[in-house]
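Reviewer 2 asked us to include a model.

Predict the structure of this chain.
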Amino acid sequence: MLDIQAKFPIGQVVRHKRFGFRGVIYDVDPEFANSEEWYQSIPADMRPRKDQPFYHLFAENHDKTPYIAYVSEQNLEPEDSDIPINHPGIAEYFEGMKDGIYRPRQKAN
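Predicted model (structure tokens):
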């Protein structure tokens, strides 16, 4: 079994290196955990390695339209903007942003 450490934490705001969209991480898979059909739909010359963390993002495109993204670590970089992400799912997982990082909601016992 591989010992893979995620580079980015839950709540981190990131930007896609190639496509430029922004998102906030709400979950991490230590390695690829989506469908093979999804993976094969990526053009071969752009297809990421499976043996790296993959991040679930509350994302927004350039027009600020919200959606969910699943992105490999190699395609992400930290976003240094404090501009909030426009996504309705954020309120369910996070209680606000501080110093550019979203703070996860505390789960009730």
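The helical segments are 36-40, 90-93. The two ends are 32 Å apart (CA to CA). We have added this to the supplementary material.
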